[in-house]
Amino acid sequence: MSTKYKFNNNTGIYFVSFAVVGWIDVFTRQVYRDLFLESLVYCRKEKRLNIHAWVLMSNHVHLIISSRTEGKLADVMRDLKKYTSYKILKEIRESKNESRKEWMMYLFAKAGKENSNNTNYQFWRQDNHPIELDAHSDMFAQRLNYIHNNPIEAGIVEKAEDYLYSSARDYQEGNGLIEIDVLQ
């Protein structure tokens, strides 16, 4: 079995990326961003997930994470994606204001039917692409910069710390949306 793109070391630090199926721009709406961030905070507090860096873009997420326990990071990621997909799909389905509801639910249903792991809808793509990092390596610094510069590359902001949905402001100003675990 391949060990590429797997959480092989439960005490390791990992860069992970995951996207909405079809790269649908779900997170352009505040309500969906809030649901995702609430889940991330919950995982940090209750599942003992260390969040070293993060960015939430319109249709994907990048994280640098580790665990404060011997628990499996793969299980935490599975739970995070499962819960957020359930909550966000429910919110979309029940929304009276979501102008894209029919279109999005059609695409989520289509993706769900094409994947034997699902019964109805699929929100997140299956992969996370975890890459283990050494906290004091050039690769760690490169991934941290990649995460924080994602909104700049997308043309959303000129300075990384100006993007609200990222840990860049924690590294610059110390006043981000969620508490992060800065490595020394």
UniProtKB/TrEMBL annotation:
SMART domains for this protein: Y1_Tnp (SM01321)
Keyword Transit peptide in annotation: no
Keywords: Membrane, Transmembrane, Transmembrane helix
Transposase IS200-like domain: residues covered: 9-128
Residues spanning the membrane: 12-32
Pfam families: Y1_Tnp
Cited NCBIfam families: REP_Tyr_transpos
Protein name: Transposase
Organism field: Pedobacter alpinus
